[in-house]
Amino acid sequence: MGLLVVGSLGLDTVITPFDRVEEALGGSATYISIAASYFSAPVYMVGVVGDDFPKEYIDLFEKYNIDLKGLQIVEGGKTFRWTGKYQYDLNIRDTLLTELNVFEKFNPVIPEELRKSRFVCLGNIDPILQMRVLDQLDSPQFVVCDTMNYWIESKKPELLELIKRVNVLIINDSEARLLAQEPNLIKAAKKIRSWGLEYLIIKKGEHGALLFSEDKVFSAPAYPLEMIFDPTGAGDTFAGGFIGYLEKTEDTSIENIKRAVVYGSTMASFSVEQFSTKALEGLSSLRIHDRFLDFMEISRFDDKE
Amino acid sequence: MGLLVVGSLGLDTVITPFDRVEEALGGSATYISIAASYFSAPVYMVGVVGDDFPKEYIDLFEKYNIDLKGLQIVEGGKTFRWTGKYQYDLNIRDTLLTELNVFEKFNPVIPEELRKSRFVCLGNIDPILQMRVLDQLDSPQFVVCDTMNYWIESKKPELLELIKRVNVLIINDSEARLLAQEPNLIKAAKKIRSWGLEYLIIKKGEHGALLFSEDKVFSAPAYPLEMIFDPTGAGDTFAGGFIGYLEKTEDTSIENIKRAVVYGSTMASFSVEQFSTKALEGLSSLRIHDRFLDFMEISRFDDKE
Questions:
Q1: Are A80 and A103 in contact (CB under 8 A)?
Q2: Disruptive mutation site among A219, A290, A294 for chain B (greatest number of B CBs within 10 Å)
Q3: Quick one: average pLDDT of B262-288?
């Protein structure tokens, strides 16, 4: 039946200590959809762009079997643009410019034939819009939701309402501490889950990811990358690999959700190796599975005897 | 044959956001020896104290089968004292006072009958002293060495000479970056190992630990602690659990070294739950093994099928 993805599409200008790229393909829906496309087919992408959105990117989506019937193309409108600059160690990112353009009035409309979607990924957009998506759906089986510090600070009540309606919230460690107002990550996770959330995933960048479920914690390692070229979109890519794998396997048992966390980490580990979506292009199931097995090898140990 | 431990013994005054303790038992040799005593017997501790060192701490060591023939007690001397204060999130520690006292002129002398020790742990002291210990030993089988930023900054040439003569160096992530002058931890580890080191362990606190061997990385998870009461000695405790387990099993294969990393993490996870060595006292092999199995459960996932 495929995967429904809602989020942003944009043109990103990214400056790293090593290089820069101008108006490259970006946005949460973009990264989620391309990562998920290695597992799910088709991926239905709902978002908005202006009529200046390059044709080559439309072609790219189509190449990855990403269905665009939910993509709004605003006549005479300009696509969302973002410029960011990473500092020396790539852990700190400064936003230099944000032009919302057509994204400012984005109202996600889910095409009739997609309203029965069972697997749904709500990319990082206003929680009010994320809820509006859920309102249009006919009891989805599994909903994953991403957010960011901006929404935690400006729309916390709406976010708390939203997380009661999703299965998984994916955030990073500083967002978890901010959301829970608690410096200890384990306590923070417990608090967030107590608000009515089934699963919480906390991404920790170079330190891997944690999955919190009922009284259980799963710790996924990070892939030992010697070179991180551009971290932009790594979190979205994680979400795409995670939900794509779950949709493909149609298995939402805890054991399979753990595997999905590792597939999310796997996709994110590729993503940061080049600018924009470049490193996600041209992967294969075999390469992805090989790196999944690397994650297994990195974290494997046994009890004596 | 037992384990040889060389390091500091001291009286620590520790202030945390929750509480404080005055002149509690501390020092690298103390934590290493007590942690290792749950695996190795006996543990031979080499260090120095003044004659003000409380009798109750001597009794404590003896209770844990820690042999004190290598402990120098300086008549009329004062024991090493340290006062530290942890900030709100426990990640930053300020040293308020250091009185070296008898430790200032410490010259480790290995008693004749311990010179054939096969397993050796060099706790965090001046690398020149650590080398002087090695000079007295008759080809030990496996040597673990700890250090800290102070020695990395002040005695780097001596430290680089030392690491060629040990099997494992244990440091934390900021120390690894400092030693290698490289922000990427994986690159930093590679660089440090290239200087002639067999195994490097990088402790990452709440993010677990990494073991680097020839072209391989092993990632051990952190135990999901909701409450860290006092981090003092956690690194020494890690080293003690690590080398104690190796000495007990007399197996230095890579698979067993991985287990030892998890036993080190296990002991450290207990250590931080109370002040000083309190949480290490009264443990049992069963409780330790249970927590080892928790670490396994936390990081376990499988491939589909």
A1: yes
A2: A219
A3: 96
Which of A208, A224, A304 is nearest residue B186 as measured by Cβ atoms?
A224
Asked whether the predicted pLDDT for residue A305 surpasses 70, the reply is: no
Between CA A122 and CA A151 the distance in angstroms is: 14
> How much is the average pLDDT of B243-251?
97
**Is the peptide bond between A42 and the residue preceding it cis, with omega within 30 degrees of 0?**
yes
Q: State which amino acid sits at residue B243.
A: I
As a whole number, the mean pLDDT across chain B is 95
- Pick the residue with more confidence: A6 or B94? A6
How many degrees, rounded to 5, is the angle at CA A293 between CA B216 and CA A240?
120
Among the partner residues B183, B218, B292, nearest to A89 by beta-carbon distance = B183
Confidence of residue A87 (pLDDT cuts 50, 70, 90): confident
Cβ pair A219:B299 closer than 8 A: yes
Contacts 24+ apart (CB under 8 A), A74-78: A74/A48, A74/A49, A74/A50, A74/A102, A75/A51, A76/A50, A76/A51, A77/A49, A77/A50, A77/A51, A77/A52, A77/A101, A77/A102, A78/A50, A78/A52, A78/A102
Q: What is the pLDDT of residues A51-72, one digit of tens each?
A: 999 999 999 999 999 999 999 9
The answer to whether A248 faces chain B, any CB pair under 8 Å, is no
Tell me: ipTM over 0.90.
yes
Do you find a cis peptide bond into A54, omega within 30 degrees of 0? no
Q: What tens digit of pLDDT does each residue of B164-175 get?
A: 999 999 999 999
For B298, nearest residue in chain A (alpha carbons): A218
Instruction: Please give the Cα distance from B270 to B79 (Å, whole number).
Output: 26
Of A187, A208, A221, the CB nearest to B226: A187
**Does residue A225 belong to the interface with chain B, where contact is any CB pair within 8 Å?**
yes
Q: Are B107 and B132 in contact (CB under 8 A)?
A: yes
Q: Tell me which CATH homologous superfamily contains domain B3-299.
A: Ribokinase (3.40.1190.20)
* Domain definitions of chain A by residue range: 3-299
User: What phi-psi label fits residue A23: left (phi over 0), alpha (psi between -120 and 50 degrees) or beta?
Assistant: left
Q: Over the stretch B166-224, which tens digit does the pLDDT of each residue have? A: 999 999 999 999 999 998 999 999 999 999 999 999 999 999 999 999 989 999 999 99
Report yes or no: B224 at the A interface, CB cutoff 8 Å: yes
Residue B255 in contact with partner chain A when CB distance is under 8 A: yes
Q: Do B298 and A262 touch (CB under 8 A)?
A: no
List B residues 83-102 in contact with A (Cβ-Cβ < 8 A).
Answer: 88-89
The verdict on B178 touching A (C-beta cutoff 8 Å) is no
